[in-house]
Amino acid sequence: MCKLLxxxxxxxxxxxxxxxxxxxxxxxxxxxxxxxxxxxxxGINALTAYIFMEFKRSIKIKLRYNxxxxxxxxxxxxKLFKIHIERIGKKDTPGYMDGTTLNxxxxxxxxxxxxxxxxxxxxxxxxxxxxANLKYMSEFYKLLNLICKIITDYYNGAKSKxxxxxxxxxxxxxxNLYLNISKCKSYLDLLNKLKGIYDDFSSxxxxxxxxxxxxxxxxxxxxxxxxxxxxxxxxxxxxISNSKCKSLHKKTTKPKKTGKSSLQxxxxxxxxxxxxxxxxxxxxxxxxxxxxPEPAPPSPQEPQRETQxxxxxxxxEDPPTKLELPSS
Length: 328
What we know:
mainly alpha; two-stranded antiparallel sheet; 12 helices; 4% strand; disordered C terminus
């Protein structure tokens, strides 16, 4: 998954996709209509379809087929948010927030630019998440992007100062997100779904890696007072439509002067903790999956999904010797 998302990022210069690069790649271009993508928006749709299909084909354990769909929506939200603020003449300054949802942004900017896969319906299994705030989803992707860079750079042998700074950046973004979304259970589940990815990788490294510096840097993701919330794993359903979640779409907490995140916290961690229990253990439900990778350009057809959900009473598996996140 991480390799695909970061590969997708490599096709972008801010909000614009490299159309020449898209059309030169026969696999991605295969999702374009009429022999090629003509607009930036069509290129984004084709690239999203490519990432979705390649990711699904890489999943070998059927019960994990829909475990990471949220991550794909975070990736898409990051791109849509950059388009959105440019179209409305705004800048992503610290504390900026508007009420635009992912679904609204998709309809406004991408829906009419058809490609060979009906893009948004493939995420109907987590349909309510489409009503998530676009800004927050883009901020979730900033955390996911950092986690993915740690994972992929580690396996690529990176040892730069920037690489060793990623865990601290993850901690900073995790805390900031919590302070802004703690009243909404579904947003907390999203946040701690990312924590689960981080924790699984960290566990593998601490058990098996000779890289002592990274082992030291990979500290637990906690709140400002050191409290650790439970990680979320497996398939989840979401409810963004309730009043607590919608109330968060109007403003963010007052920013600090330091840090890179545009969702900067005030020093109100203790107050915000009263809104939700950090020891809450969300239910985990799972969906069925499929498939294996193919070298030829994929047929732009939606993969089958099964709607039957299974119980999540099975305890979390110990991580394998190498992180078993789905990847291409």
